[in-house]
């Protein structure tokens, strides 16, 4: 169903401070950064060496946003596990057939113009699982 781990998403209060920490502590640098108003986040992708794996730092845009709520409840830390899929519509249909709830009826726009949806954490063992169908021209 899933072809690889796309990224692990980490909630942070301050994106710039988190980027500094990852740079200074782990020599990890930003390969992509954007603001996603619909998702209420500023996000930065950081590459793990040349592996193609990334972590995604997620900072809240507003106090009502999903990430702000997560920070209030759980504090900073891992918020989501994102898998790459080739065809998000087909994978979503399969998951629904298997009785899992997806958060959105139709995929929404994610990082670098990917198409994304989420499995409710209550249906996935307490893990917020994100499905990512990368844009055709994207490297991740
Ligand atoms: C909430 N819960 C979680 C969780 N968030 N469990 C594991 N991981 C998380 N991240 C649990 C929570 O402890 C509750 O369990 C229960 O789910 C209901 O949570 P809640 O506090 O009432 O929170 P809600 O219902 O307001 O929101 C939860 C959901 C929300 C998952 C529906 O976070 C959401 O819509 N997430 C999808 C969008 C998103 O995460 N966007 C930001 C990333 P108990 O206490 O009842 O047992 S944007 C992104 O990833 C982008 C742009 C990208 O990758 O491209």
- Work out the count of structural domains: 1
Number of helices: 3
Mean pLDDT: 96
Bound small molecules, by name, code or SMILES, are: ligand V0V
Q: What is the strand content? A: 35-45%
Q: Determine and state the CATH class.
A: Alpha Beta
The CA-CA distance between the termini, in Å, is 17 Å
What class do helices, strands and sheet pairing give?
Answer: alpha+beta
The H-level CATH homologous superfamily, spelled out, is 2,3-Dihydroxybiphenyl 1,2-Dioxygenase, domain 1
Keywords:
eight-stranded mixed β-sheet; 3 helices; binds ligand V0V; 8 strands; alpha+beta; about 140 residues; 2,3-Dihydroxybiphenyl 1,2-Dioxygenase, domain 1; about 35% strand
Question: Would you kindly provide a written description of the structure presented here, covering whatever features stand out?
Answer:
- The protein contains three helices and eight strands, in the order βαβββαβαβββ.
- With 140 residues, the chain is an alpha+beta fold.
- The protein has an eight-stranded mixed sheet.
- β3 (41-47) and β4 form a beta hairpin.
- The chain is globular.
- The protein binds ligand V0V.
- Ligand V0V is lined by residues 9, 36, 39, 41, 43, 56, 58, 66-67, 69-70, 73, 79-80, 82, 103, 110-111, 114, 116, 118, 121-122, 126-128, 130.
């Amino acid at each position: 169903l899933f072809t690889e781990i796309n990224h692990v998403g980490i909630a942070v209060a301050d994106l710039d401070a988190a980027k500094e920490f990852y740079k200074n502590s782990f020599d990890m640098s930003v390969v992509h950064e954007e603001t996603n108003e619909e998702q209420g986040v500023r996000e930065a992708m950081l590459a793990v060496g040349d592996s193609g794996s990334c972590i995604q730092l997620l900072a809240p845009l507003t106090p009502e946003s999903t990430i702000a709520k997560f920070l209030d409840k759980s504090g900073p830390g891992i918020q989501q596990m994102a898998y790459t899929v080739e065809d998000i519509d087909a994978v979503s249909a399969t998951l629904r057939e298997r009785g899992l709830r997806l958060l959105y009826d139709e995929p929404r726009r994610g990082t670098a113009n990917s198409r994304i949806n989420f499995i409710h954490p209550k249906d996935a063992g307490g893990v917020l699982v994100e499905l990512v169908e990368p844009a055709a021209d994207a490297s991740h």
